[in-house]
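> tool_call: predict_assembly(chains=two)
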Amino acid sequence: MTRIESRPILAVGLAVAILVYVGCSRTNPSRPSGTGSKDVVATSSDSATPPANAKLFADWKGLQGAVAITGEMDGYLDPCGCTAGQLGGLGRRYDLFEKMQNQKISFAKIDLGSLTKYPAGERGGLEQAKVKFETALKALESMKYDALALSAEDLKLGIDHTLSVYLNHKDQLKVVSANAAFAPALASAFEGTIRESVVTQAGPYKVGITAVIDPAAYDKLKDPQRDTLVLKPPEEVLPALLSKLEATTDIQVLMVQGPPELAKKLGEAYPGFEIVVSKSEYADPMHDNSPSQIVTVGQKGKYVGVVGLFEPIKEKTPETRFHLHSLTAARLRNAEPMRALIDEEMQGQLKTLGIVENYVRHSNVEAPAGAAYVGAEGCKSCHPNTFARWAGTGHARAFEVLIHNPKDAKRVREFDAECISCHTTGFTYNTGWVSSEKTPYLKGNQCENCHGPASKHVAEPDNLKFREAMHRPPELADKGGMCIKCHDEDNSPKGFDFAVRYGQVAHKGMDDYQDSRVHKGMTPEQARAAK
Amino acid sequence: MMRWIIFSVVVVVFAGIATVASTYFASSSPIELVPTAQEKPSGPPGEVTVDGELLHQFGVMSQQSDGKFEWTVTNKGIGDIILEKGESTCSCTIANFGDGHLSPGKTTKVTLNWNTKGNDGKYSQRATVLVKNDPTKQKLDFQVSGTVVPPLLTMPREPMVQFLEIANDQPHSREMVIFSIDRPEVKLTGATSSNPALVDVAIILLPEKEIKILQEHIGQVQKVDIKKAAKVVVTVKPGAPLGAFEEEVIVTTDHPQKPRYSLQVGGKVTGPITVTPERVRLLDVASKQGDSQTLTVWVRDRKTTKFTVEKKPKDFDVQITAVAGQAETNARKYQLTVKVPPGTPPGTVADEIILKTDHPQASEVKIPVAVFIRAS
């Protein structure tokens, strides 16, 4: 009989147990636990977030410093639009910078400007655009930006307004323009508000940063305060400035606030600028990571361009490599400081200032004179089946999701005119949405957003003129842009097919009007109370 | 026995080293912000090729239309290739390409769809396909670009008529030219203002000479043959009440894709004195440190105006001074400095500053104040 030696078995058993333990406890930090190999590659729709200690630029061997470039945020403090899967947002930008800092990457941060685009035409109106602009400046300050280029778009808030805001931020944020200066009479009052250039450090390198604004773009501003600034052609100021920067810095950066052709022209004329930041022709720039003097970072703040600085091959100028980073939820978090700034501080300001309540309203051109908004409850008693159909749609819950966001409870937008414009009824019109207290019957996207204010029709249901004024044939809804003004590129990014979506809300012939009571006129109050 | 113990210790040590090493190398792999397939190839390598350029130009497209382009992808290598969907820009979709498995010598189609929706102008869209088991390529960036032309175009391009600040002692007009490229003879059939008492609107056909200029201007970008164009003239009448205004003008047209065109009209009617920013807004002041804000006061049509601070929030310091060195013009700027001194008690200040002036048309100027002072 063979004698079984127990100690070697125990030893091997112990080793196996340790192996099993070690093997099981090892967590691959590059992927969420429990995922298979197919999940390794994140896509824009992924919700998994990489660990904070994952290394950036691992393939950039010998990286010594970097310049992070942003610009053309165009008013998008949050990821573009209100639906999932969108790129951009200050929160993710902050997170990216924080990750770079945590990995001891020394980098400069510059912004091309155009924090806003058409402020007067923004969905939330000019006053809200001003609050958003100041919030954006605060965000850049908190991210410790080294330079912000002066832009014609940002001056569209009103030249004096924007410059006065810059004046009040001049100690925290450096606004740069080499070819724009205050008129001599104002120079001392606004001293230090606009700088010719800025010098900062990125790793071992001194980075000289300047910017120019296209004088033609400035001239197009129809602003009576245009004489506040005096502009020179970029070609008049750049040669001397470039020489000065070349003598004192290792790498020179030029931001061009003008058409891309101007950036190209200036880049060719002044090759001493190793990096020329140009405005983008496209919201999503071509994904070319090859080294180039001209750098674009797209529009709507969706991307951050990073120029890596490496050991110089010859002379003192560092070698460069470029990478365009998409700001996606898959890889970046909405950093808390930015969330607090936008969700709490800015929303608090919008509430305090009463941006929604005090919005300057006007008449609805297509409605009968004097017609007022009644609310869907006022339609219900005569159109019960139509009402029931609407009540089952997302349109009816549109306001609810603004204050109880199912995806993010902290994201409350009750006082944000941009959001209110599509989530309530009659906003921007006289007698339309004002607030939950004053117009509770206009919550959500109701009947009158398409059909117009109904009080005249409610008062005289058989008046054919009033009835006709509320008629909305599908072709008008489609070609008149009634749906896509909210279901636009940003807010229905994966497409809005009118033929499909109209079918989901169409309600022709759902009610009959045999009951004599439906032909009796009512006041809006009576209509809302009627059963 | 000792040999068994040594063997088990060696196994454990090796396992530990391997685990630590693999953890280290995994943690130093990049966060690929542009994702790439990260798996190491196994077996013989594949070689992915695409017929033609990865960038396809759709050219000029109208709004609400679909663009679709198909590429043929071939595996010219000796091993299998796996294709997976990667990231795509907001509004671009890429059609499925089977299970993504591509044997040597086989081809598959990659289709990229894009709907122009309500876009206007140049666009570029991208969809990435991740490639596994090709040592030379980790991804393919399929791109489309082109220009979307809306049914009606305007000059200037901004989608609103903006007056910024205007005085109410005379009428002020802005013009917007409207024309169509896909329907060169488009007619503007009418225009209605939301407030005819304040905003007047008229349609004027553009004379041939001006159409030519317009055509030359647009022709720099694309070839066009504009037959008709009209300008919408929006006038804010004199006597408008002070303050901001927002109105709407609806223009009707005979363009089947755009029967109505809504123009937002906005601005601010001001008196002879303007303050920018319009209000004092300091919403995060530390009581201990205090804070300040400077506003610019602009007086139109007057060399010198005397200001006195009639009312201000308690504890605040308010000074107004003329900007020195201004030329003897008929417009003059002043700086109003509002200081919240250190030690001002915490709380919310919703008040106003009233400046008395000797200006004959504006005896006082009111500036709203919104300040929040926190304790720490």
